[in-house]
Amino acid sequence: MALNPHFDIDFTSKKCVCCGQMKDSFSYLRTKSFMYPTGYVDVCVDCLGDRLEKTDYDWNVMDKICQYLDIPFEMNKFEELRPTHSAPELLKSYNLMELIGVLIKRPIVN
Asked: What is the Cα–Cα distance from 72 to 83, expressed in whole angstroms?
C-alpha cells in the first residue's frame, strides 16, 4: 500500500515546532512527504525563511529544506527566484512550482 499525504486536510491554526507560535495554514508549506500526513510541514515558512536568510541563501541549506519538503533542489529555479523574492516568498514560490510540477508529471489513472 502506497503512503500518500492527504492534501485535503486544512486547519485554522497550528503551532510551529520551531518558534512555538500559532499560525494559520498559509504560514506552512505543503509537502508530498509521507512523514506529514496532513500535507503540511511542522515548521512555519517564517522560521524556514529566517534560516535561509541567516545563512545568506546557502545552497546547502536550501537543499536541506527541499529534502525536508521532499522536493528536488533545482539551483537554477532557486537562483531565478532569489533576486526578486524575500526568503519566505521564495520558499512559497519554489514549493508551489515543485508541487505543480509533480502534479503535472503524475500520470492520469482511470
From this structure: 20
pLDDT tens-digit series, residues 67-90: 989 889 999 889 988 999 999 999
User: pLDDT at residue 19 above 90?
Assistant: yes
**Sequence letter at residue 21:** Q
> Measured in Å, how far apart are the chain's first and last C-alpha atoms?
18
**pTM of whole model > 0.70?**
yes
| Residue whose entry in the numeric block shows the C-alpha cell 506529514 | 36
Distance CA 98, CA 11 (A): 22
Name the DSSP letter for residue 88. Answer: H
Give CA–CA dist 88/53, Å, rounded: 9
Q: Check if the beta carbon of residue 31 is closer than 8 Å to that of residue 39.
A: yes
